[in-house]
């Protein structure tokens, strides 16, 4: 589901039949930056900021390691396919789950507990993954 949803979001931008322009008026982080780079134009206010926490390329999603100006739609769709799978795998990884379980240090004990349960039961439910 994570793979399909992520892929669909970015494929929608890639398949859009007309020139697409986006406006940014504040913080733009992660996937918002990625979608902006897939537009044909970006209009940004003086308050606009752009942050890509996945800048290493190892945590990329939805064509973030490619840019519309440097690749054709087929190449971007291939990148989106790969990165959508990688993102789905990352969300279900022990590393990600442990980072989320650390939410208790920020006073978010209930969400942290849910992730701790996912970590403890991961050996069982991971057998159901493709």
Explain the overall architecture:
- There is one protein chain.
- The protein is mostly helical and 130 residues long.
- Helices cover 51% and strands 11% of the residues.
- It is built from 5 helices and 4 strands.
- It has helices at 2-15, 31-38, 73-91, 94-101, 109-125, and strands spanning 21-24, 27-29, 41-44, 49-51.
- The strands form 2 sheets. It has a two-stranded parallel sheet with strand order 1-3. A two-stranded parallel sheet has the order 2-4.
- Helix 1 runs antiparallel to helix 3.
- The radius of gyration is 17 Å and the shape is flat.
- The chain starts with a helix and ends in a 5-residue tail after the last helix.
- The relative contact order is 0.13.
Task: Please give the structural blueprint.
Elements: H1 2-15, E1 21-24, E2 27-29, H2 31-38, E3 41-44, E4 49-51, H3 73-91, H4 94-101, H5 109-125
Parallel strand pairs: 1-3, 2-4
Helix pairs in contact: 1-3, 4-5
Question: Which features would summarize this protein structure in a list?
Answer:
single chain; 130 residues; mainly alpha; two-stranded parallel ribbon; 5 helices; 4 strands; 51% helix; Enoyl-CoA delta isomerase 2; isomerase; peroxisome
Concise synopsis of the structure shown:
With 130 residues, the protein is mainly α. 51% of the residues lie in helices and 11% in strands. The model has no long low-confidence stretch (mean pLDDT 83).
């Amino acid at each position: 589901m994570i793979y399909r949803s992520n892929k669909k979001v970015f494929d929608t931008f890639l398949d859009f039949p007309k020139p697409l322009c986006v406006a940014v008026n504040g913080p733009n982080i992660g996937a918002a930056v990625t979608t902006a780079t897939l537009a044909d134009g970006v209009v940004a206010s003086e308050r606009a900021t752009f942050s890509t926490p996945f800048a290493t390329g190892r945590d990329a999603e939805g064509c973030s390691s490619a840019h519309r100006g440097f690749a054709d739609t087929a190449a971007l769709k291939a990148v989106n396919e790969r990165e959508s799978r990688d993102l789905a795998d990352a969300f279900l990884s022990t590393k990600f789950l442990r980072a989320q379980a650390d939410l208790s240090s920020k006073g978010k004990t209930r969400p942290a507990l849910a992730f701790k349960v996912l970590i403890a039961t991961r050996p069982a439910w991971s057998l159901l993954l493709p």
